[in-house]
Sequence to fold (378 residues):
Amino acid sequence: MNFKRFSILLIMLWLLIATVGIRAENSSPATEATGSYLLEAYHPSGISLAKKYLAGTRIALPREFHQYGNPILELDEWGFLQSISNSLSIPPGDHYAIRIDAASRHLQEITPPINFSPLCREAIERVPHWLRYDFIDNLRLFGNMDYLRDIFAELLLNTQDPYVDEMAFVMAHLSPSMLTGGAMNTDFELLVENIQDVYAADEYLEYVQINDYGSSLDDDYWSTVEYSIRTAEGDTVQIEIDRELYYWYIVHPRITDEVPRYIDPTNGRAIQPPDGRFWRNFFLNEPDDGYQSLREILEGCEIMYGNLWNDNGEGNGAVGAVTRWIREVMVFDSGAERPIQPVRIYALHMGRCGEHQDITAAAARAARPASPRPARIS
Fold:
């Protein structure tokens, strides 16, 4: 390399370092050149970073630079400098950037700030890693309601294993607009009861069990359920569903378009316990006179699904039992009232397509026969 070319290299390196991160029309304080000019004058054809031993100094450079389309530098000797791998949430209007620190020859990440209270930050650290950014995104949607955000955080911090991952999931995916707008009336105890009832049913439903992997002391942990099913050949096998199915279709307290609330079955209005009921325990353990509870019809089921098509008999396990229960408690008809709350639908014991959809979905979540897409068969 002659002296002239080496000088050009040094000038280009200075321009690169001085202008890292400037936007298209902002001028560099070191060169007074705009980003547009630099992009026109010096276009890197590669995007990987390398280190080149040049006069005993290790410098990070793109593989090749062009000046007005003419190559002026090619690096044939390469060595690995540094790599960055990250997963993060970038809110609207914010940015993520990487800065080249020429002095230390390292890359520095510039991530969006998380301007939450210490209580919220502590809660974030307790959320399993695979849920953490969903949780952060949802907290951001509380806007300037810091007090409500702190109530959420404190609720999670007070939750004990094995309920922590379920609580974190619900908090990460329950619409904050229902809370900030007052629709849920801060019914946070309902969220606790909902998860406790999921585990309580695990004690007496024979065809299903919850599998917990890790605990809140770990950086990453989760739960899912394992079912006994009968194959078409008549064998009974165990299947464990994907964890996403467990959280979305069993744990989540919202069925369709209703707000998760305690509901008075006599009039459908939202009211706190003891008059208010939530559908999960209500369906399983509090039948109206003359009807079986969902628990009564499920107890004794040894399999979740018997592989029988369109069959609501006992041989089809919990799937058949839920179908029989719906047929027993519901008449296909409607009056002037068309409720969307499962508790009120049950109390009326009638409904058309929409009501049948809502009560069936709630009963299935209470009974926990989620769609079995097996992740593991043993």
Notes: DSSP finds 14 helices and 13 strands in the chain. The radius of gyration is 30 Å.
